[in-house]
Model the fold of this input.
Amino acid sequence: MNSSENWDLQIDLGVFKALRKISRRDAEALLAVIRLLPVNPYFGDIKKMKGEEHAWRRRIGAYRIFYRIKTAKKVLLVFRLERRTSKTY
Done:
């Protein structure tokens, strides 16, 4: 499902709060990946979330970026950022 048009990117305020709590190096790496999501939201180590419609997660090292894809409106909503631990899932 590749598209030549970019998607609109929306980021929840909670994601920015989570980025402020982690190391600068990790935050910059995660922001770089978030900026690339509108180019192709189906690229990378992604997995569709069970039990949630249109929700996906992308794995970046020890972190997970959770986002929703609104195909009809071509909108991506990044709604959560978590560090993967044994209690994440």
Q: What stands out?
A: The chain has a mean pLDDT of 90. The longest helix spans residues 24-36. The chain has one domain: 13-83.
